[in-house]
Amino acid sequence: MLWVQASHPARKGTLPAPPSFRSAMDALVRRYQRDEQQPGVTSFAELAGNRGWVASQMHVLGVPTAKILKDDFSLQQLRDVLEGVDACVIKPKEAHSSRGVLSLKRVDEITFECLQLRCRLRLVDILERLYQEMRDHQFPNHWQLEELLLPPSGLLRPVDDFKFYAFRGRVGLILQVARQPEGQYYRWYDRDWHPVETGKYAEAIDSALLPPRDPQALLRVAERVSAVLPTPFCRVDLYEARQGPVLGELTPVPGTYHAFGEQADLYLGAMFELDNGAADF
What we know:
By secondary structure, the chain is of the alpha+beta class.
């Protein structure tokens, strides 16, 4: 599907000439950096990284978040932390990707089923893998356990991640992330859930990925969350879980946002233009 065919509230039959998404994001990042240098000022980027703040905001909206089972422990404490835990997700506190993330279901005292790898791992294997991830990607030895979310089917596999590029209550683009044993696969959609090409993750696009069971429920939650955030843009990351949409995290500055192709960059740039405040950066 061509980008000029995708639905867009600012388009009147022709592609607009908006500012670039890359340029707008660069300006937004500079604004966050200026805020962080001001005494007593907390930038939105800092707020979004505060799980307590995010959870309190979502509680007011009635949007569930993944429950934290254990917070801020080192890998040396993992055996004790897992005591009595039947199912969980282990993830580093300061990483914002799938690196170092394992979804586990207990089999016996020292063995777990790993949903991403579709194999059984002993505790020693889990530790070896997480230490290696920590060394390879240079994140600190601070970890947390979250509740294990399952897909609507109830099957024992990782839930797909749906990342909504949202601008003050209006979604411009959606990224689906599916985690398989051999790696991550992606699919892009416009707001109407039509598949689109963006130039990003082109080598790992999988057109066979199924869209969510209830796409409109996810879209409504993403736009409701986005509408109350004190920023012109934030990526809202949701899971479609058995209990319905669950917020994973808020991502003020998505990684590699310069990697979009020209048409996608213009398209998302137009979404910035819809908000008059975008010119104030």
